[in-house]
Design a protein that fits this description.
The protein is of the alpha/beta class. It has 17 helices and 11 strands. The strands form 4 sheets. It has a 4-stranded mixed β-sheet with strand order 5-7-9-10. Strands 6-8-11 form a 3-stranded parallel β-sheet, with helices on both faces. The chain has a two-stranded parallel ribbon with strand order 1-2.
Amino acid sequence: MTDLVRIPAIAPLELVRLPDELDGETGVNRAVGGRPQIAAQNDVDAIKAWLARFADTLTTFTSYRKEAERLLLWSVIELGKPLSSLTHEDLLVYQRFLGDPQPAERWVMKAGRKWSRFEPDWRPFAGPLAPTSQRQTIVILNTLFSWLVNAGYLAGNPLSLSRQRQRKAKPRITRFLDDELWQEVKASIEAMPRETDREREHHFRVRWLFSLLYICGLRISEVTGNSMGGFFARRDKAGEERWWLEITGKGEKVFSAGVDVMDHTPDKVVQMIEVFHGILKRLMVFPLPTVAALNGSAMGGGCELAIACDMAVATEDTKLGQPEIKLGVFPPIAAILMPKTMPLPKAMELLLGGGLIGAQEALSLGLLNKVFPRATFAQDARVFVDQFLSLSRVALIYTKRAIREASGKPFFEALFNVEQIYLKELMSTADAVEGLNAFMEKRKPVWANK
């Protein structure tokens, strides 16, 4: 096993062992008198507790570890003080250091090849950081300090005094091909040589790819990130078989945060309600089963959208909630549907308190049907949906109608209405006959969806 390194030698975070006066246990910015939310007693352990939150996202973990590691090493080696004693002035000095990490033999790796973190020639920097990289470093470190304050480890965030620059919104640029340009593209593709098998294959591939990009409006990353196995065949509502490609949008942390807050202002709220509630009304009267697949948190209108569906599945890290009360308003759809979905006291807590709940709690309350790991969410969600796609469409429609018809009515009134649907409508369909015949003949039914 590699020996741990006692500072002031340069070493990666995993190998660092700090002397008592530099480990941060008695740092001047340590929180005192409170109840810390983490068990860490020194700076290295506190950083590791922060990094543990990103362990399932390798790129984020690696990037955040690099920035925390650099600051820790700089603090103890260059300033001779623990990270938990850094001041606002210290971090101004560090920002200048990022643009020119000197002495270079101590901080910058030798050129020529990439060094392993555990080799003696490893260094925290590959060279000076560009201004954009410096800003990104400060953003990450601000996240670290803010979290350590919230965790009760630090008394304050030394970066909170930094001047916050307001980013100017970039002008919106719309890129598209008008009809004339698109015809030129198609003509260029059709003019490609097709004399040999190789040329013909190349022509067909280019024609197919450009058609896919044009018709579907996909990002380049969405094309390169999918394989032919991502395509699957499904019948549309008219019974015609069509090919589908499932795309996960850019960013995986949020399914929907609902309607823009600016659309709630008095001059816009009437139109917003009309449009948004119009979408949910159409969703709720849709005759076939609807499933919300939450590959990220659903808040506000996003949560209302989810509970307006017949069923919902989510990733294990999904959060759900209705924070509208914190803005002095309430969610109309959720105020109706939440008390019907979960125990009234819990619905009251969520609607009146504006808090969020995790996926497992939402599952136990009945807001979700299934919770899946993020890594396999797309496949697991498709398997969940496929169980309904394999059934008779008309049977699904009449079953959903019966459930809705019976909801909230006294038992005998509900039973009479459901019997009428069953006897006068469902039993006159071809699929009802086919399903019963297939069962008696011990074969799989072939649905006509009528």
